[in-house]
Design brief:
By secondary structure, this protein is of the alpha+beta class. Helix content is about 50%, strand content about 20%.
Length: about 90
């Protein structure tokens, strides 16, 4: 699947997501390639800090727009993996 990164910027002061780049290009690209579009992820500078430290961003910031998008993407991935395993039981668990 495809995740469009840096679609908007999450402002920690006003808690809004402002536009950085034109949105919607990821969904169109996924459609062109015939792959699932998993979501568009706003930029939050804390996300890189958490990743560098090996910490799960969603555990501390699940209610932020970025945390909510990450949770939606994770659910879509789990659904996709489950569907593939049901369709091909010989693959086994990941």
């Amino acid at each position: 699947g495809l995740i469009e990164n840096m679609v908007g910027y999450y402002c920690q002061t006003c808690h809004a997501v402002g536009e950085v780049f034109r949105a919607g290009e990821g969904a169109a690209l996924a459609g062109d390639f015939g792959i699932p579009f998993l979501g568009d992820l706003p930029f939050d500078p804390r996300l890189a800090s958490f990743a560098d430290a090996g910490l799960p961003f969603v555990a501390m910031h699940q209610e932020t727009p970025v945390g909510q998008v990450l949770q939606k993407i994770a659910r879509r991935l789990m659904t996709s993996v489950d569907a593939q395993q049901v369709g091909n039981p010989e693959r086994g668990a990941l």
